[in-house]
Amino acid sequence: MGVELAEFPRMTYREAMDRYGIDRPDTRFDLELVDISDLAPKTGFGVFEEALLKPKGVVKAIRVPGAAEKFSRKVTDKFNPFAQQFGAGGVPTVKYVGGEFTTGIAKFLGDIKHELVERLGLEDGDAVVFGADTYSIVTKALGELRLKIAREHGYIPEDKWNFLWVYDFPMFEYDEETERYYALHHPFTAPTKEEAQRLMDADIKDIDTVESILSDGYDMICNGSEIGGGSIRIHDQQVQSKVFELLGLSPEEAKLKFSFLLDALSYGAPPHGGIAFGLDRLVMHLVGTENIRDVIAFPKSLTGVDLMSEAPNVVDAEQLKELHVESTAEASV
Prior knowledge:
Number of helices: 12
Low-confidence stretches: none
Distance between the termini: 57 Å
Order of helices and strands: EHEHEHHEEHEHEEEHHEEHHEHH
Strand content: 15-25%
Strand order of the largest sheet: 1-7-10-11-12
Structural class: alpha+beta
Shape: globular
CATH superfamily of the domain at 29-156: GAD-like domain
Number of strands: 12
C-alpha cells in the first residue's frame, strides 16, 4: 500500500475513555469529549445540576467544527433516541454563530460563555453537543454519538491509518445488578507491578479501590478497531487466589474449578504473556469495509448457520460412537 507508519503512540484506558468515550478510540478525527463539570453549576440548567448530584456525575461536551449549518432541528432531534440506547436522558445542543450561542440551551450558557468558548476552542459556525449523567453513561453515550456524527457528517478522513496502543485497563468492574465484580479482560490477567500489592490488600467491599486496580493488559487499535489484544498472565498462586476471591469464588469453589491451575502455580511459573491478532479486522480496514462479515471466510447467518458447510447439521451414529458421545435429541417424525 506504500504507507509508512510512525511509532505507535500509547494511551491509557482512562485517557481513552475521558477523551473519546471508548477504549478503542478512532483518532483519525477530533470531536473529543471535554469535561465541563466545573462550569456546569454556573448555568442554572436543571439537567446539568441533577447530573452533578449523582455519584460520579459529570457534564461533558463535544465541539463539532462547522456543524451549525449541518445540525438542523431534524438532525439534532435524532440524537436523543440514539443516546437513550446507552442510558442517557438526552443530548442538549447549542450553536455558536456570530460570537453568540443560539438555539438549544443557549439561554443557560450566558454566564459561562467566555469560559466555554475558551475551553472548547469554539470558532464561528461550530456546534456543541452535551452529555450529563454518571461518568459511565456520559462517556458511553457521547463516545457512540461522536462516531455517529463523524460517519454521517464527513469528519473521518480517507486513506488515513492511525494505530495506537491502549494499556492500563482496570482489572475489575462492579455490576450493581448482580452485586459482584467481573474481570474486565479475563481472570488470569496479572496486575501491573505497581498495582500488585494494592490488589493483595484490597477489601472486596471497597468498590472504588477494587475498580481502580490496573491490569497488565494491552490492546492494539487501528482506526477505531481492536486488531490485537493481550496481557501478562498471573504467575503467582497467591495473586491468582486473590483474584478468584474478589470475583466471588470461595477457596473451595476455586479449588474445584481451577485446581489444575492453582496446583501448577504452586510449583512456580515464569512471568509470561502474549498477544493475539484479529487478522479479519485488519483485512476489513485494508479492503475498506465497515462490516467484518464481508471478510470472514465462513460468516454465519443470523440464525447461526454456516451456509458453506451447512453446519450445524445431523451427525450420524457412527461418528458419535467414535467420540463417545450420546445424543439426547428426540428424532423428528
